[in-house]
């Protein structure tokens, strides 16, 4: 039995007529696009197509203005269930428009690489429960102050020094393989001397001792 609202279940808020809600007024929008027409037909859900229509270039431009991602300062795009390539492409299209966002949550989106994305004003970024394996795969975040990377798959601290020239104060790396590296905290603070908090624990005196580095010296005798 179909509910009256069933035909709207694959529509984004921009596709629903007679409202003026803009993107920067939403904190937790669903930006994941619905299935293609072919997939809907395969699912025997073609009844949802009656709400869809061919859009003109003018309507596309009006939708872009309505999304208004450029003026969004705080946004939660977590749990988007990005199961298809076109979903990921639409998601990244929106991320590229977040030029003024300051707080952004992207939790549990199966993300692997956002290195092509730049978030010039982002001060707080939460990308917990994704599939990042390296700091190099994170977006460009020159103003970052609080970064949470818990429950990813970051195996080494290689690339972490790229954040040395940012105002990063707090970093969370809990439940990443790199957490089990010998002298883990000393290595992080050695590479990020301005960091104040790691994994929720403030910088301790023992964290300030430099990590052991083994050098091989060549010795020569001068006669």
UniProtKB/TrEMBL annotation:
- InterPro entries given in the database record: Leu-rich_rpt (IPR001611), LRR_dom_sf (IPR032675)
Please indicate if the UniProt record lists Signal as a keyword. no
Superkingdom classification of source: Eukaryota
Which key words are in the record? Leucine-rich repeat, Repeat
Concerning Gene3D superfamilies, the annotation shows: Ribonuclease Inhibitor
Query: Coiled-coil regions in this chain?
Result: none
Give the range the annotation lists for the signal sequence.
none
Q: What is this protein called?
A: TILB protein
Instruction: Tell me the organism.
Output: Hypocryptadius cinnamomeus
